[in-house]
Specification:
10 strands; 412 residues
Amino acid sequence: MILGYANKKMICGLLLLLTGVLVLAGCRPKSPGSPAEASTSIRDMNPAHLDDITMDGMVDDILSQMTLEEKVGQMFLVSTDSLDYDAETAVTDQMKERLARYHIGGIIYFSFNIKDRDQISSFIKEAQKDNKIPLFTAVDEEGGSVARIANTEGMGVTIFPSMAEIGKSGDPNSAYALGQTLAQDLSELGFNVDFAPVADIVTNTENTEIGDRSFGSDPELVSQFVSQEVKGLQENGVSSTLKHFPGQGDTSEDTHRGYVDLETSIDRLREVEFLPFQAGIEAGADFVMVSHVSVKAVTGQEVPASLSKLMISDILRDELRYDGIVITDALNMKSITKFYDSGQAALKAVKAGADMILMPDDMEEAFQELLDAVKRGSIDESRIEESVKRILTVKIRRGILPLTSELIHGGE
């Protein structure tokens, strides 16, 4: 009997070494009435709780199955009119064809895309069909004046006042409740990314681009509210976006109309503007949107922050330690289109460290320029993969790319 037990222990040890299974049936008696062992399959795990090693392995497996064109396509988040001008409220054949051809990473929806709940839900659901990698489906739903859904009549979602009004409450819990409700409303309709919260601090009374979209002028208060809104959104399944880095609440001009310089020093940015972004980063924000404001006093150049390696790679990445998705502000804004064509702007943004290009003026031109840049050697494919890894990681964490996907399991 002693020899039989020893042999049994040896067999169990060998099996543990070979398979990595923690408990093998028959090697250890179960106590009477003990529950069945929990599944160790990745397919049954909560994607939000995957450890970094497991996540990195899954992302690398997906990357190994992707073509260069598919990788480049994931870096674009576009409006429906980039896919087809006629695809305002429903998917068209041309929209389907371009989604398939360019392997787009995401779509942003505007008020003109939204008629009612059933229509926008169907629109998003149809757009998601047949994509090898599911789309980010994004919207500007801040509350107040910038609320594409709530400001459409009859949508049946919560209508919020401006962020300035919410900030006046002085209670950061109200920002958590805001994020929580926004996430619930958005996810019911099929959205998985909100371009919110606004992390700008309004310190210039002449500022009209941000205005009451900000929680206020107190850096500490704005930081607390931003952090709580990030948590409220993401704990309820919708990715948040800190915008507009490095902060443009101290400007008096509008980047939608042309060149804007944020006349400030790096010390001022560190003491004021950066604080809400740092708080949002610490709260785990999935996206940071980089503004087109120039910071000539810091960079020494009249270059938009969205195209600046110093602002993105050196400051946002290295100094503020942000490793989520960096997305540009819309590249069809006048502060970009007056000085760069679509291909130039996209390539400069990626070389600066951006992961996703938002709404290039000419999506096809921008896509082709990135593709050609890799082929001619002016940018390494590894740089493209660096961004795609971040994109895939968020898509897995938020359940957009399900753990049951054949991509994750190598076509099993």
